[in-house]
Automatic annotation (TrEMBL):
Coiled coil: none annotated. It comes from the Bacteria. Keywords: Iron, Lyase, Manganese. Its EC number is 4.2.1.8. Its cofactor is Fe(2+); Mn(2+). InterPro entries: Man_deHydtase, Xyl_isomerase-like_sf. It comes from Salibacterium qingdaonense. Belongs to the mannonate dehydratase family. Pfam families: UxuA. This is Mannonate dehydratase. GO terms for biological process: D-glucuronate catabolic process. It catalyses: D-mannonate = 2-dehydro-3-deoxy-D-gluconate + H2O. The gene is uxuA.
Amino acid sequence: MEMSFRWYGEDDPVTLEHIRQIPDTRGIVSAVYDIPPGEVWPLEKIEKLKQTVEAHDLELNVIESVPVHEDIKMGAPSRDKWIENYKETLRNLSRAGIRTVCYNFMPVFDWTRSELGASLPDGSNSLKYDEETVEHLDPLSGELTLPGWDLSYQTEDLRKIMDAYQSISEEQLMENLIYFLEQVVPTAEEEGVLLAIHPDDPPWSIFGLPRVVTTKENVEHMLHRVDSTNNGITFCTGSYGANPDNDLNGIIEAAKGRIHFVHARNVKWTGSRSFQETSHSIKDGSLDMTALLQKLHEAGFSGPIRPDHGRMIWGETGRPGYGLYDRALGAAYLNGIIDTLDEQTGE
Ligand code: DNO
């Protein structure tokens, strides 16, 4: 597996110099951040990002994410225009040598938590999701904004979009995803790009919005409906694993050969729809990271993997979930497991 690390570009307090010092971690997961969602990413900007990464003796191996325009998710009449743009971005990424592209299909809001710095018993803090708090939250009130949310819309427009989603069922949203895939996957095939859809985080409906990348059944459905290797998934342990009902080994099995990227992190369940993020260790969280990596290894996964969110430790402050220290510990922990698995199988 290719140990990789997310980097948010020149504004990221975590620098490429820092990342280069994490043992056996050479892949960089990044994106072009100054293009409005839906617009084509110019080749020059992608090339520049790649050169910056390579100048630090690292490799830009995954793009996370190319955002999907809201009109595509909603199935609006204008979606074809945005889909054409998406294809053009994939072509430009391919020209720059990018092989893996992560994206998501979450309506309006990307990953969601109720608290960004909740204390843990060891004195560190981490991201937390409490069902009751989220139920009483109006995401447009400004009480809570999350780093992954696209807040480029005016609040009024967002309200309209949220209202429009009230008439979109999960079945319809799935059909809109399939429509999108039917259009873009042939381009991904031509260009040699592996598409890796990220699960909804958390993997259930929030704020009354439909969500579909949530369960094994839905993953199987979307993989079968557009049956191409280039139509694959990002297996995110912490997102699928936030729901204790999800059978993670079953998802790996169902998506065998179609897992193109892995996000590894642990969560501690605090209710059937509530959790807090922990260190990567199997001693701290509810997920058996060792068993999951073993399962991925057995399924033949050898692609890019990155430690996902970390806690804030040793007084570090910064982008919630994306500090340096705990993610670096995560990379080292994961590499230890992967090296052991490789040795056992003589790889
Ligand atoms: C959160 C991330 C997500 C992810 C997107 C992929 O930390 O895992 O924001 O990048 O959902 O499109």
